[in-house]
Amino acid sequence: MKGRKWRLINDVVGIVTIILSLIILIRPIDGTGHVETWGSRLLALGVLAIFVLLFAGVESLIRRVIRH
């Protein structure tokens, strides 16, 4: 049962990450009215990647604490 919960959380995070990445790549203008360039899109994707890596790091730390 524990494995299913972790899998569900990872699946949700993966789906949300894919959706947000597609939104970042498709939108011509963001919410503030800024016209998106490839540089600003890459920066936004970089920020998203850092968030996902931080999430994965925290999850890994929690798993290690639970195992020991």
From TrEMBL:
Q: What is the scientific name of the source organism?
A: Lactiplantibacillus pentosus
The name under which this protein is listed is: DUF3923 family protein
Q: Which InterPro entries match?
A: DUF3923
Alphabetized UniProt keyword annotations: Membrane, Transmembrane, Transmembrane helix
Membrane-crossing residues? 12-29, 41-62
Origin: domain of life: Bacteria
